[in-house]
Amino acid sequence: MIFIPVARVPRPDDRSDGDSRTGYQRLPEMVAFFHDTQPVMSWKVYVLESLRSGVRYVGISEDLNRRLKEHNSGKTKFTSGHMPWELLYQEETEDAASARAREKYLKSAAGRRFLDKKLNRE
Questions:
Q1: CATH code for position 70
Q2: 67 and 25 in one domain?
Q3: CA 36, CA 20: separation in Å to the nearest integer?
Q4: 46 within 8 A of 63, measured Cβ to Cβ
Q5: What is the pLDDT of residues 15-68, one digit of tens each?
Q6: Could you tell me if 32 and 55 lie in one domain?
Q7: By the 8 A CB rule, do 31 and 78 touch?
Q8: Total number of domains constituting the chain
Q9: Which one of 15, 19, 28, 45 is most buried, by most CB atoms within 10 A?
Q10: Whole-structure pTM value
Q11: CA distances from 2 to 5, 24, 36, 38 (A)
Q12: Range of the structural domain that residue 30 is part of
């Protein structure tokens, strides 16, 4: 659910409808409107494992189901040589920048150790 703070709009000509000290008027909250019409898009960081070779692949996507189908249909150069793939792990982030940062971490040595521990593969 999206929470939208109540905004204030200056009304210098009429101080009777709002805060009499500042001349601001409260706007109606539109939480339901925004919740129904503008869904929040989340980014997913995911880890795949090849069922053929055991190789791991770390990536990001807004639509994980579509992306997994692309990997398993050979549309991606690297993953086409290691099909089929299964989803091992996923995390949800709020935006692309934080998803990319998390992807970089999971590709690092520390990130691989984290995944091994999380997946009980020490």
A1: 3.40.1440.10
A2: no
A3: 34
A4: no
A5: 555 555 555 555 455 444 455 555 566 999 999 999 999 999 999 999 999 999
A6: no
A7: no
A8: 2
A9: 45
A10: 0.66
A11: 10, 24, 10, 9
A12: 8-37
Count CA atoms closer than 13 A to 110's CA, side-chain side: 4
DSSP labels for 52-112?
A: TT--EEEEEES-HHHHHHHHHTT-SHHHHTT--EEEEEEEEESSHHHHHHHHHHHHSHHHH
- Judgement on whether residues 32 and 56 belong to the same structural domain of the protein: no
Polymer length in residues for the chain? 122
pLDDT over 90 percentage in the chain: 60
Neighbours of 46 (CB within 10 A): 22
Q: Among 78, 76, 84, 81, which residue's Cα sits nearest to residue 49?
A: 84
What are φ and ψ of residue 82, in 5° steps? Answer: -130, 15
Q: How far apart are CA 66 and CA 17, in angstroms?
A: 51
The 3-state DSSP class for residue 8 equals strand
Residue type, 111: G
